[in-house]
């Protein structure tokens, strides 16, 4: 998949937005959805996506939708840092397969980084459902407070 092409409404994030596929949801409003990455590269790896924009990448999304996504990215980065106390945090967004994109609905990664811990492989090892559910509960509690 290159930078150019048609938006596929059957991509996994479109299915999650429609409720046709599950997710470990952390935040949702009219425009934005955030959930845990099920193949996390680090503990707390979170994805933030637009709900209304059928955009594959940053070239296609309208500026208003992108700014709504980024406002949630900033808020959730604060939540993750406060709750998980990483030594650093990466905010990343990939466009086109050569840049590392594997799901073609635009999304932003928030990846907490811990001292001395290398990143796990991208979109590879699946986390245990019980671990993801426990992390979701912990982060939802932090968001609520
Ligand atoms: P990218 O490679 O930037 O397109 O990132 C796509 C991300 O989506 C990867 O980090 C995957 O681990 C993640 N991912 C794929 N399927 C799911 C899913 N069903 N639920 C949550 N995260 C997913």
Description:
The protein is α+β, with helices and mostly antiparallel strands and 145 residues long. The protein is built from 3 helices and 5 strands. Helix 2 (63-84) packs across helix 3 (129-144). The relative contact order is 0.22. It binds adenosine monophosphate. Residues 12, 23, 37-39, 47, 94, 100-103, 123 line the site of adenosine monophosphate.
Bound molecules: adenosine monophosphate
**Spans where pLDDT lies below 50 across 5 or more residues:** none
Query: Could you tell me the number of beta strands?
Result: 5
Number of helices: 3
The fraction of residues assigned to DSSP E strands is 15-25%
The main β sheet shows up as: 5 strands, antiparallel
> What string gives the helices and strands in order?
HEEEHEEH
Radius of gyration: 15 Å
Q: Report the average pLDDT across residues.
A: 96
Shape: globular
Structural class based on helices, strands and sheet pairing: alpha+beta
Q: Order of strands in the sheet with the most strands?
A: 1-2-3-5-4
How far do the termini sit from each other?
41 Å
